[in-house]
Design brief:
Layout lengths: L1 E6 L3 H12 L4 E7 L3 H9 L7 E3 L2 H5 L5 E4 L3 H11 L4 E4 L8 H14 L3 E2 L8 H10 L3 E9 L11 E7 H7 L5 H10 L4 E7 L5 E9 L2 E9 L10 H15 L9
Parallel strand pairs: 1-2, 1-4, 2-3, 4-5, 5-6, 7-9
Antiparallel strand pairs: 7-10, 8-9, 10-11
């Protein structure tokens, strides 16, 4: 049975941890870590099966020999801990925006080349990554993300749909680190940096992502209308479910089907 540790006990980390506790993921949850340890303790108190430790440092997490560490905290956490984690464990990264930092990305790639450990990126709040990865083989000439979110979730006081950001994915993930990790995910999959537009919309209660891509192999347009996470409206419930699905695949001793 795989041993899993989770960094970040917020909305998404909580969904993942409770899925392991219910037995939806065939794994042992060995450790929880958060900048607010009380969040870990509160989450652990809701469990009926798992008894993870509450760690206060990454060294404490790694001392428990996890096979997989799940980052569900922040881009800063990826920068702080990814290199160290990959010395000993595979890493699931949810704050994908961190990987658009060239220095962080290069250091992580060097560690994985040396240790043989892997980084896994869930599909998150979007779809079509399989197509984008295939398009990348032929070259992607155009990649665009238009995201529309409830204005209140973005802290915007507007009465009509308003563009609050327009620019490159690398700029988007810095300006809205909790809201636009999908921009990094599609950029990494396609091998080109996406053009991004973020709209604060007072008339919607969904997180809507429209992805457009062009390649010699074809043209893609996907629209997803996601229900926001009840605990964190800036992110989609789908993002947590995709992470759980990935963990199910990584932790399953026998996988009859694998989708790529």
């Amino acid at each position: 049975m795989k041993r899993v540790a989770i960094i970040g006990c917020g909305a998404i980390g909580g969904v993942i941890a409770r899925s392991i506790d219910r037995g939806d993921v065939d794994a042992e949850l060995v450790s929880l870590m958060d900048t607010q340890p009380e969040a870990c303790t509160k989450l652990r108190e809701s469990f009926t099966r798992q008894k993870p430790s509450v760690a206060t440092s990454i060294e404490e997490v790694l001392s428990l020999r996890p096979d997989i560490v799940v980052e569900a905290a922040s881009q800063e956490a990826v920068g702080q801990y990814a290199e160290r984690v990959l010395e000993f464990s595979d890493l699931v990264v949810l704050s994908v925006g961190a990987l658009l930092d060239a220095e962080v990305y290069q250091k992580i790639v060097e560690v994985t080349a040396r240790t043989g450990k892997r980084i896994y990126i869930p599909s998150g709040a979007i779809g079509g990554l399989d197509v984008l990865r295939a398009y990348a083989r032929a070259g992607v000439s155009r990649l665009r993300l238009t995201t529309r979110k409830p204005a209140r979730a973005l802290g915007a006081t507007v009465t009509t749909p308003t563009v609050v950001f327009r620019g490159k994915a690398s700029q988007a993930v810095k300006a809205y680190p909790k809201s636009l990790n999908v921009a990094a995910t599609i950029s990494l999959a396609a091998g080109v940096e996406a053009e991004v537009e973020l709209i604060a919309d007072p008339n919607t209660d969904r997180n809507i992502h429209e992805i457009e891509a062009e390649s010699p192999a074809g043209r893609l347009r996907i629209v997803l209308e996601n229900v926001p996470s009840p605990e964190n409206p800036r992110t989609s419930y789908l993002a947590a479910l995709s992470a759980v699905t990935l963990l199910q695949e990584l932790c399953s001793p026998k996988r009859a089907l694998a989708f790529y």
